[in-house]
Amino acid sequence: MNNKNRENKLRNLSAVKYIIPKKILKKLTPVRVVLALAVVVFLVILGHAAWGQAAAPGFAPTPNQLTRLQLAQKDAIIAQLLLNQAEKQRDDANASLNAAGEAVRVENKWPDTVHFNPQTLTYFDMPKLTPAPVPAKTPEPAKKP
Predict the structure, then answer these.
(1) What angle do CA 129, 134, 140 make, to 5 degrees?
(2) Domains of the chain by residue range
């Protein structure tokens, strides 16, 4: 599209006629329009985000309430740390139990197909499964029209 056509199309837009001066209108390209719109959208979003983060007056806890909230937050953090430690201890204990179960299997010279069940403290044989052979399909006879 040549410059005259682009300029004419942009001039025909009623909002463009009144907002954009003719000098700038001649230099507009689709890329510049998209970039300008992107900048405007970015600035609007940035302004909205900054305005939305302003502290809401009247919704601040009192100093006594803030202290209670901080203590409850610290209790929750400590509980999370204790939970993480307990999970690590559980994982270590399970690994130790599985290692002991494997040691018993090796000590008794059971084959590798024997597995240990830590829930019931029993052993079971699980032979390696081989896939079943797929039966060959017989071709269907061609239907006569």
Answers:
(1) 170
(2) 3-50, 63-125
> Could you write out the three-class secondary structure of the chain?
CCHHHHHHHHHHCHHHHHHCCHHHHHHCCHHHHHHHHHHHHHHHHHHHHHHHCCCCCCCCCCHHHHHHHHHHHHHHHHHHHHHHHHHHHHHHHHHHHHHHHHHHHHHCCCCCCEEEECCCCEEEECCCCCCCCCCCCCCCCCCCC
- Identify the residue whose tokens are 């329009």: 33
pLDDT per residue as tens digits for the range 49-95: 777 665 556 788 999 999 999 999 999 999 999 999 999 999 999 99
Contact between 38 and 46 (Cβ < 8 Å): no
Q: Do the strands 114-117 and 122-125 form a parallel or antiparallel pair, or are they unpaired? A: antiparallel
Q: How far apart are CA 55 and CA 53, in angstroms?
A: 6
Give the N- to C-terminal CA distance of the chain in Å, as an integer: 58
- Residue type, position 16, single letter: V
Determine the residue type at 25.
L
Residue with structure tokens 């044989």?
125
